[in-house]
Amino acid sequence: MGKFQLDQFNRNPQSIPNFKRDSFLLLKHLNTLGVRSLTELLFPSRCIACSKLGISICLDCERSWQPSIYKKELITPNGTYPVLSAIPYSEIASKIILSSKENNLSVADQLIAAAISPTVKYFCDQYGTGVLVPIPSRKSAIRKRGRNFLMEILEKVAQDNSLKITPLLFHVRAVQDQSKLNQSQRRINITDALSADSKNQVRKFRENIEPVILVDDLMTTGSTLVEAVRALHSAGYEVKGAVTCAFAQPLR
C-alpha cells in the first residue's frame, strides 16, 4: 500500500477494489493526523532526554539544550590553550550524549553535531583553522558500541566547515572508564596513555598536516585534553586548542 496507490485512491476512490477501501480510508486518516507509518503508530516517539511521548526532543528539554559559546583555558606543560564548548553539562545533556554514545540514536548524533559545528566555526574564526583530531575512544568501547560515534559525528561537522578529520591519536595502554574516577584518579589513569602518528611519518606517507584542533564530546577535568596535547607535541604537531560539545564543572 504505497504512496502511488494512496494518491490514486485520493484522486479516484472508485478505482480501488471494495475490499481494499477500508484500509485506504484508515491510511488516509492516519496521514491526516500526521502519522507517517504503522511503526510510528505502534511505537510512538519519545523525548530522548525525558522519555515524554511526542517528538524526539520535547520543547522543555530543548530549552536546556541551547548551544552557545563557552570559553575555558586548558593549562598544560606545553602552554595554555583555548577550549570552546557549546553546552553546559546537565542531566539532559548527559542523556543526549549517552543516547548517541551507548544507544546509537541518530537524533542524538544530529543534536551533538549541530552543537559542535558552529563552535568549530567560531574557533576557526578566532584562532585559525586546522585539522580536526578526535579524542580516541577505548577499543573495548568501540567494539561494544559497534561504531566510533565521535568520528561519525565529526564527519558532518567537518563537511559543514570544509575541514579535514585525521584520527592521529591512539591508546598505547589500557585505561579505565574516566566517568567513574575523581580528578586525581583521572589524571593518573590517562597520563602517558596516548600517542600520535609521527608528523614526519604522516608527511612521508600521506600529506602535510595543518595545526590541530582537538575535539571531544565532554570536558570535565581536562586531563584527557592535557594528555592529548602532550602526545601531539611529542609527535611534532602544533595544537591550536580544543572544541567540546559540553563542559562540566571540574571534579574534586
Structure described in brief:
The chain has eleven helices and seven strands. By secondary structure, the chain is α/β, with parallel strands linked by helices.
Task: Describe what you observe in this structure.
The chain has 252 residues and is of the alpha/beta class. The protein is 45% helix and 17% strand. The chain is built from eleven helices and seven strands. It has helices at 3-11, 18-32, 38-42, 59-63, 91-101, 106-127, 139-145, 149-161, 183-190, 199-205, 223-234; strands at 70-76, 79-88, 131-134, 169-171, 194-196, 212-219, 239-247. The chain has a five-stranded mixed beta sheet. Strand 1 and strand 2 form a beta hairpin. The N and C termini lie far apart (60 Å). 32% of the residues are buried.
